[in-house]
Structures are given as structure tokens and as C-alpha cells.
Please model this.
Amino acid sequence: METTSRVEGVPAARRTAEGFLRAPFAWYGLDEAFTGPRWLMQLGTAADGTVQHGSLGHGDEPSIKSDAGGAEKERFAVVVTVAASPVRRSGDGTGVLDATTVSSAAWLAGSGLLAYTWPPQLDHALRDDWLEQQTEAAFELADDLDGPEWSSLSLPVDGVPMPFAYRESEFGWILAGTTSAGVHLGAYGRGMSAYGLAFAQVADLGLYA
Model:
């Protein structure tokens, strides 16, 4: 499972499509049936600057909420596109990078949801420890998509029903699958049902910029 990329995150007001346009693969988002706000999120790049994955947001731009009531009011879905890659040498030639798989997309979706999660009873000073523990748990869950924590869900991708691994938590939902276009998809959200979503290649990144 690929976890070695560097994530580029900048405030929404300064995000542009430039980095996303460097990607050698197609980006995915919610299809045209979704009519709400769309916005750019993080990019994941290799040491040589090659874009490996990225996220596109839909709905309310999420923030870390320390009160459960505030979090429940947010309605968003984030779609993570991950380039499908075989086992390969690292950019500096000193090691080997794992292949990217559906588990990679599941891991990125799980850790993405955690980034906007904060249990209301948790002390501010303990959040880093909690986040580290939960991130490790998300990694283990992503590596076992056939396990009991996951169920199956069929959703349209470019108009064709595709299977996804799906799970819910107290903080939101996560799903992961693949496409016929050579990329893996992950998604996470809160306040929007995953069951009614449909994904499509993004024809115009200007809708997100």
C-alpha cells in the first residue's frame, strides 16, 4: 500500500488547478447530478514532484469540529483519485515503492476523514495521540477490505455500476474501489449519504478552482 507520497495542502483561497493539471491521470469527482459547491483539496506527490493522488471536495468545506453537533451540520463528500502503479523503484533509486491498490485509496480516504474529526470529550492536548492511534487503525482496516468491518456497495462510475468496499464510523463513512480508467477511487464524507453518489471523470477542473 503506497503511503510514501508528500501531501501538498494549502488554504482554499490559494488553491489553484495548476498542480492537478500536472497529473498524468484523470481526476474523478461526483457526477453532474451534484449541483452544490466544488473545491480543490490536497495533492500527494512523489519526491520528484510526480502527482500520485489528490482530493476533490463537494458540499460544505469541512473543518475540525470539537463538538459533535457542529460536525453533524456539515454535509460534504470528498473523492480521492489514486494513480494505479506497479511496484517500482523510488525516485532516488535507493529503494522500492509499493504498488498502489484499492487499499491505498481506502487508507487515504480513512486518514482524510480523521483529519476533520475530533471527539467532543477529547482534551486538546491529547488529540495528536488519539489521531496517531486512529490513523494506525485506519491503515490496518484499509489492508483488510475483505474483513468484517467492510460491506459491499455498488455505485456508478462513468455511468457503469462498480463495486466498492464501504464502512461507516461514528465520524462519517468511507468507501474505496477502482475504475476502468487506470485509477483507484476513495471517498469519505459526512451528512451526505454514500448510497446516492455517482462518480465521473472531471472534464473541467475550473468547476473546482
Observations:
- The helical segments are 18-21, 68-73, 102-114, 127-142.
- The radius of gyration is 16 Å.
